[in-house]
Amino acid sequence: MAARPASRRGAAAACLVAAIVAAGCTTIPGKEFASYKDTFAKARSAGETVVLDYGVAVSQFEEIKARRAAAKPEQKRRGAPFDPATEAKKSAPVDHVLVRMQAWDVVARYNDLLTALAEGKPAEDLAAAVDGLSASLNNFPLKAVAASAADVSGYLAPLKALALEAAREHSRRQFVEAVGKGAPLINDKFIVLLREDAADFYRVRAGLNDLEISALAESANATGVRLGELAASFQASREVEAAIAAFNAEADRLPHLAGGVRLVAPLKVSARGTAVSTPEARAQIATLSQDGKAQLARVAAKDDELNAYRQVLIAYLALLNELERSLRNLQVAAEQAQPASPSTMELERAVILLREAYMAYQDKGKG
Amino acid sequence: MLTNEQTDASYQQAFAALHSVVIDPAATPEQQSLAREKRDLLTLEYIGHAIANIEERTRQFRKFIGEMKAVIAEFGSGSTIAGIRRLQEIVDAAGELVGAALAPAAAAKTVTGKPARQAPKRGAEKPPKRVPKKAGKKAAKGPAKKLAKKPAKKPAKKAAGKLSKKPARRAAKKSARKAATTPAPKARAKRARPAKRGR
């Protein structure tokens, strides 16, 4: 009979304490956190695409080097210096792409941790653990133990509610603390490294593009030279002049190199022959003109390819900037989510109620 | 040491200069070939330099991964939960031990109509009074199973062994007297009950 008022008191204490704890709890900056996670997912997808493309670029580079080595084998040299660091690198190659994927993955796991803390999963785990212990005690083969466990569980209920709320609050505070520790690492190290990487990724792709575009430009240039030589051997004609003008116009649309150097030199036909162009010569000029136009188009396409890659990197860097900004917002919001302390009066009342419940429990034990 | 921007600018200028020779109709084929070779070599070195930068940065990425793992480990451990789960494991293990010790005794009681008593083991100085705290499941089940299978009065004879029957008989009589006064498993079960404590 004495248990009933005691359990009521216990329940009342639990409600009050839970209300107090809830009133003084830390708030999770949910909007900022959601924004950060969304930006991270996009940045990660873009980052992994970029790093995988780098892996492809390195393979292409290695292929080019191997082809060159096969075409022009170098003479073996005796007395080459021995460098332990270089030899160690050769024996244990590092997968640089994989390490970068792992870096993205570790941040994803950190985000999972933040999500778990924000959702109070540790508190849920705690509840499951407490329930498991209660079940084990209830199933204990000695009746006396099971009976006392059942009795005790009535008194444990308010304490369990309190413990769970405390665990949730602890979880929220850990969220704030984890943001405080992880965010500077991500912003000041990870994102900085990714930006530096992006600059070097562009250099690798630009270099490979230079190798390809210069070869294409040379072909177009050679076609132009042949067209010019053929045009110079005949009298000027409208058709020939039109072909030269078209070639120069296309070549002029191509980007210039440093110092204004042209990728493909313009055609200059200074001296003219006296012979009248034959139908065969005219057909040859038309063919060369068409070939030249197609080759110039390929040069332009190769340049567009690099520009497209540049745009990919620009979009990727914009995502990194957005990621940095959203993480800073989350950090600021988390720092501002300071818990308000419950008033002393309310706390005292809760303590008195809990004490009464405990006294009743002790009295029952004596009886 | 050149910065990345300075390296880029130098490369661009050198590349342009060499390419201008390659496409110059006034240059000899040898000059063009040499310029082409130097231009491509320059580009390969430029790419190699960028790759070296990237590979050097891998070390810093690894360091970052280690630091992030430390943050995750710091906040990912649930010591309270682990403690409760360990406690539950202990309760479960203890429950199994007690259950294993009680179940055969109850069965023996129903077969003989009398409380079972423990059979002294051959060569053993004394029958064990209670299940050791850290004894495993088998240790607890062993004597209990024997009790369940054999009649209450006979085990003393068997336990006496072949070499000397007299001490065995004495031991049997002694244990029979003891069994008559205190039925072993029930008493043990009572001792194990914490029912009176704190109630």
End-to-end Cα distance of chain A: 11 Å
Based on CA inertia axes, which overall geometry of chain B fits? rod-shaped
Strand content of chain A is under 5%
**What percent of residues of chain B are in strands?**
under 5%
Report Rg of chain B: 43 Å
Mean pLDDT of chain B: 68
Overall strand count of chain B: 0
Compute the number of strand runs of chain A.
0
Total helix count of chain B?
Answer: 7
Terminal Cα span of chain B: 83 Å
- Note the main sheet of chain B: none
Oligomer: heterodimer
Q: Bin the helical content of chain A.
A: over 70%
Question: What pattern of helices and strands is seen along the backbone of chain A?
Answer: HHHHHHHHH
Annotation keywords:
A: mainly alpha; 9 helices; B: 199 residues
Compact overview of the structure:
The complex is a heterodimer of chains A (367) and B (199). With 367 residues, chain A is an all-alpha fold.
How would you describe this structure to a colleague?
The complex is a heterodimer of chains A (367) and B (199). Chain A is mainly α and 367 residues long. Chain A has one domain (25-68, 97-339). Chain A is 82% helix and 0% strand. Chain A has 9 helices and no strands. In chain A, helix 2 packs antiparallel against helix 8. Residues 340-344 of chain A have low confidence and may be disordered. Chain B is an all-alpha fold and 199 residues long. Chain B has 2 domains: 4-76; 82-192, no CATH class. Helix content of chain B is 73%, strand content 0%. Chain B is rod-shaped, with a radius of gyration of 43 Å. Chain B starts with a helix and ends in a 7-residue tail after the last helix. At the A-B interface, helix 2, helix 4, helix 5 and helix 6 of A face helix 1, helix 2 and helix 3 of B.
